[in-house]
Amino acid sequence: MYDKGEMITYNLGLHDFAAAGDALAIKGPPGKTGRIVDIGVAVTEVFNEVTTPAYVRLGTGADPDAYAELNMGSAADTDYWNTIDDPDAIIVEALPADTQIEVALVANTGGTPTGIGHVHISVLWY
């Protein structure tokens, strides 16, 4: 815990972006609003973007990237690719209280796509 909130890192596991996308969700502690601190992927296989890149998106059912969209670009094997590599990834830092946040792991497309990694999302809840 921190003086001004509780930091939670959601570890969403290993995902093969090149094989398929996935839809997941996170929630904060009851009654607390959140601030996105970081979104990152511990890369275990190089990402490529032949036609479109892979993404990690945080949003709502109506707007999949309402809060964030991390572009995985051409992240190298063994890198930790995060909001430092894509500084525009966080669109809106504030997350509402008592609301499910939709997480979309979007596959890259074109040619022979590659890209595998462990997905993490860090949020400070107040």
List the helices and strands and how they pair.
Elements lengths: L5 E11 L5 E5 L7 E12 L9 E5 L8 E4 L8 E3 L11 E2 L5 E6 L9 E10 L1
Antiparallel strand pairs: 1-9, 2-8, 3-6, 3-7, 3-9, 4-5, 4-8
Structural notes for this entry:
With 126 residues, the protein is mostly beta strands. It has a single domain, classed as Jelly Rolls. Helices cover 0% and strands 46% of the residues. It is built from no helices and 9 strands. The chain has strands at 6-16, 22-26, 34-45, 55-59, 68-71, 80-82, 94-95, 101-106, 116-125. Strands 1, 3, 6, 7 and 9 form a 5-stranded antiparallel β-sheet that branches. The protein has a 4-stranded antiparallel β-sheet with strand order 2-8-4-5, with no helix packed on it. It is elongated and about 45 Å long. The termini are close together.
